[in-house]
Write a structure and sequence with these properties.
Length: 381
């Protein structure tokens, strides 16, 4: 096991990448630092029978994606929602029924749909997701009140910067979808909007070529997480909807819901359980006090995890960036992403275990928990 500590110059390139980001939006602060540009494929409005076809293609191509699901579809296809998680993809919340007039006619309705969907996703998959995508996107639908209330609750609102156009009308043909993607402006961090509802057979047909296009352009594929700075549209000067302002009480309802479902109180305290990650016949063991549960996410010391995976860690103390390399794959975090601030890295760098493993292309095969230990089995996917 090697531990390389480097400073300064080596990271000039990385720092430059950090600055290269879609400027359309004031909320976007920094792109994920990486040696390669990153594409996040996102599929909205599922799950449906089409999702299975999408999953088969993603598996064949060795690509992970993010699925923004509708609560009502999750209720109908809980098994498919679960399969999405089991195959290492991320799930986001896309409200319950997608009916614009209900969602954007009143924040109380919007919030209720988000909470109902959260519960549906949790029941089907065991995952509590903080990722949210507004049906139709935020532009003209979200006012500052919507943005603020959802952010206060801990939601990360994700719009996109490449629209595949697969939903501009019913039945947009495969060729047109591919053409739209190939002629879009691409970014160092590209978030592609696609759909996997039952009417999106053409999107499924287009998918292999969309993936091939990004591979050819040198992109790496990743899933959205709480740690990925979201693409958000700018606030529209006027709204498409007339509605009352978001009230403090309405905001409080979502904040309290999130507190109730995300705090450690909702999850058995880890301080009596050790955490064991089984990777290729090896065990990476975290003692009860070595890892933490934060907002429903298991957070572990980066160094221990990476060394257990026979990887390398590089610290750029001057730039405040930590980079980990496992199996020739490199991931970087800025100080603020790992609990530091500015360019100062914390003495103990903690990362979300599930997200980090997924970004290194490990799929979680199995998870178990008993009174005294929690175990995760992972495999390179
Ligand atoms: Zn949608």
């Amino acid at each position: 096991m090697r531990l390389l500590v480097q400073t300064g110059l080596c990271f000039i390139m990385l720092s430059c990448l950090l600055l290269g980001v879609n400027q359309e939006n004031k909320h976007v602060k920094a792109a994920t630092a990486s040696s390669k540009p990153v594409v996040y494929l996102t599929f909205d409005d599922g799950p449906s029978e089409k999702t299975k076809e999408v999953l088969a293609i993603l598996k064949k191509e060795g690509v992970k994606a993010t699925f923004f699901m509708l609560g009502k579809e999750v209720k109908q296809y809980p098994g498919i929602a679960k399969q999405v998680v089991q195959e290492g993809h991320a799930i986001g919340n896309h409200t319950y029924n997608h009916v614009y007039a209900e969602l954007y006619g009143s924040f109380a309705n919007f919030a209720k749909q988000v909470m109902d969907t959260d519960e549906a996703i949790y029941q089907a998959t065991g995952v509590r997701t903080n990722l949210l995508r507004a049906p139709g996107g935020t532009f003209g639908n979200f006012d500052q009140g919507y943005f603020d209330a959802m952010a206060k609750a801990g939601y990360i609102i994700n719009d996109w910067n490449v629209d595949s156009g697969d939903s501009t009308r019913v039945g947009v043909p495969e060729k047109e979808i591919i053409n739209t993607v190939e002629h879009s402006t691409l970014f160092n961090k590209t978030v592609v909007l696609m759909h996997d509802s039952s009417i999106h057979g053409e999107s499924v047909k287009a998918l292999p070529e969309v993936i091939a296009f990004f591979k050819k352009k040198g992109y790496q594929f990743a899933v959205l997480t709480d740690q990925v700075e979201p693409i958000q549209f700018r606030l529209a000067p006027s709204m498409k909807w007339k509605r009352p302002k978001v009230t403090a009480a309405e905001t409080q309802t979502v904040v309290q819901y999130m507190n109730r479902t995300r705090t450690s109180a909702a999850i058995p305290p880890p301080n009596t359980q050790s955490l064991i990650v089984h990777a290729a016949g090896e065990e990476i063991k975290f003692e009860p006090l070595e890892y933490k549960m934060e907002a429903g996410t298991t957070v572990v010391p980066l160094r221990q995890l990476i060394m257990g995976l026979h990887g390398i860690i590089r610290l750029d103390m001057a730039g405040g960036i930590v980079e980990a390399m496992v199996n020739n794959e490199s991931i970087s975090w800025t100080a603020s992403e790992v609990g530091g601030s500015g360019t100062s890295l914390p003495s103990r760098i903690m990362v979300p275990v599930r997200d980090t493993l997924q970004r290194f292309h490990y799929a979680i095969q199995k998870m178990t928990a008993t009174k005294d230990k929690r175990e995760i089995w992972i495999e390179l996917s």
